[in-house]
Amino acid sequence: MNDFHPFGWYAAKMAPHLPKKAFQPVKSRLFGGLAYFLLVTGGILAVSLLSLHPIWNLLISVVLGFSFAALGFLGHEILHGTVVKTPWLRDLLGAIAFWPLCTGPKLWRKWHNATHHVHTQHEEKDPDAWPSMEQLAKSRLLRWVYRIPFPIRAFFAFSSLSVMFTVHSIRMLFSFFRDFRWKNRAVVLLQFFLPWMTWLGLLWLIGWEKWWFAFLLPLLIANMIVMGYISTNHRLNPLVPVNDPLANSLSVTVPKWVDVLHFNFSYHTEHHLFPAMSSKYYPLVKKHIKQMWPDRYHEMPMKKALAALWKTPRVYYEHSELIEPKQGHVYGTLGNGLDPNEIVHRELKQDAQALLTTRQEEWKKASGVGKV
Predict the structure, then answer these.
(1) Residue 250 belongs to what domain range?
(2) If you placed Cys at 308, which of 105, 132, 174, 340 could pair as Cys (CB 3.0 to 4.6 Å)?
(3) What is the mean pLDDT of each run of 10 residues along the chain (372 residues)?
(4) Is residue 252 part of a domain?
(5) What is the number of domains present in the chain?
């Protein structure tokens, strides 16, 4: 797919076919948030105050983990302004929803709304995009990581999903902190540290064993659920010069009851077309996309998408393919030859290590590294 269109091009053609109410905030989403808030509060109190058998604590932890993740999905929707429009209320509710995941609303809107959505799958500008061969050549750490055999790396990559959202959030704080005005930096830091102070205060109150069930294990579960979606959103798609949601995004399919519990977070292409629209209406958006551009739309079951991620590397080669640098195995991306039902690779004609060395030399020459 080389004929890219910006998301506004699609939105302009589709908007006349959508009801006006689809572009209004849906405050009723807060009832779901209230239900999860009560579950989280009740679960933490039960673990903290009662001397339950570890099996019961484990079951409560699972419920807490699912609730942490679901609140994060709602917080994502709130901070896009699709639930309430009043800025201070939007940020307050978003902060509460993201509290278990320890992500502040001001940082999230800068990182996710203003940067990721504007520059989706741009090699340099998208903070969530995976590296290209050029970026690999610049990073000694990445070159070391990609010397690890692919099966081992894939195992650890999937295991790391249990902490990745938390780790990436901290990384984004360092990445974007200087972009905030001086008067906002204190707010960003306060929004980051307050949730952590709350959870560490809980640790001090109830001790390690109960804290493991009340917060840490649920956080790992929530990370795994959230990253299960996020890892499939774009990582099988190509890097693109134009922010084209039908080229750079993937919607996954999950059982209907899961969509209900997760606020339709699986509709990711739809979200990138209409980020300011409540996800309540994304099934309708999907219907129109599949009628208007059926050959451009990418969707697959969540399990199949995760399996495809396991079988493919995460370094981009010439933007439209994925490469395993050590062996020189090259895989397609969605819209560029990747068949999730039968994932195969082609052999790079030139030696992969030689190519990486060449890219390193090109980067050094361009950046002046090594000059006196």
Answers:
(1) 7-127+154-300
(2) 340
(3) 85 94 96 97 97 96 98 98 96 97 97 96 94 83 86 91 96 95 94 97 96 98 97 96 96 97 97 96 97 96 96 92 88 94 85 62 55 38
(4) yes
(5) 1
